[in-house]
Amino acid sequence: RVKDAGRNGVRVFEPEWGTRSNRRLALLEALDGALASGEFTVHYQPQVCLTTDRIVSVEALLRWNPPCHGAVSPAEFVPLLEETGAIVPVGRWVLGKACRDVAGWVARGAPVRVAVNVSYAQILHGDLVPALEMALADSGIDPALIELELTESMFGQEIAPVAQALDACRAMGVSIAVDDFGIGYSSLGHLKRFPVNVLKVDKVFTEEIHRKDRDAALVGAMVTLARSLGLRVVAEGIEVAEAVEVCRVLGCDLAQGYFFSRPLPAADVEALLRQDAAAAGAGSAA
Ligand code: C2E
Ligand code: MG
Ligand code: MG
Ligand code: MG
């Protein structure tokens, strides 16, 4: 990032440095009050069962449309929310919104499970369990419809508060998924220690799975591991039909990715759920 020491040994910084920190500051400023101003929405991406080809669940993905910037990726703004602690109220809002949307779909005859991403900060602040209790009580949905996705890096943090929060969630009937499995802090000891139900295989392992035997072998080993621990496997980042087939053969339970659908607004995903149910009904009638 820093150019070689120039004449007189003076270091010349790339102009983008200044731009990048200006952007960071501008985004931090814009994020302050974004929740109150209603700038966040939640999109949903289908997860398809590889045995039945039906959509059985959706992942809730936060979206932010600030008035004075274009849409900003959660990969960029979620870390900023985590840094300022604003992920606590925003994460609480996402849980509430996802549960309300599922309640609506259930009521209108398009039932589906929902997976919600959770940050370590929500657990550390002691907000995850009460937020979940409130979201469940307000929406009245069955807790078995909820899955919480935790990134593996979370398991590298202080263990006791995470274990305690996850035990409480499990006791409510909510399930737990390890997101981005296989990258970051991949400690098998943590899998033994935490009450996990699902492994989500990161897309670095699936994006070339149909072209690289090595990647297929790695995912096959993850499926074997998951089986021996009684866990389900979700393959993330599936973009092509060939990758679906390899994941199916390897024994992954669910697959998620642009091949099936991009993340969609709530109304669009509801239409997709209806279409999926109608197609399945037509299939069984035939
Ligand atoms: P993630 O939980 O691993 O979510 C999967 C990401 O992969 C999503 O990016 C999704 O749009 C993208 N994706 C899905 N299918 C494909 C595919 O076939 N190809 C490719 N290349 N990408 C695909 P997104 O929506 O930009 O979210 C990025 C990350 O931001 C998420 O990664 C998650 O870690 C975080 N995030 C999103 N929403 C929330 C939230 O409500 N709370 C927290 N704490 N984090 C969130
Ligand atoms: Mg996720
Ligand atoms: Mg992931
Ligand atoms: Mg990710």
From TrEMBL:
Regions crossing the membrane: none
Start and end residues of each EAL domain: 24-277
GO molecular function: catalytic activity
Protein name: PAS domain S-box-containing protein/diguanylate cyclase (GGDEF) domain-containing protein
Organism: Caenispirillum bisanense
Span covered, complete protein: 397 to 682 of 682
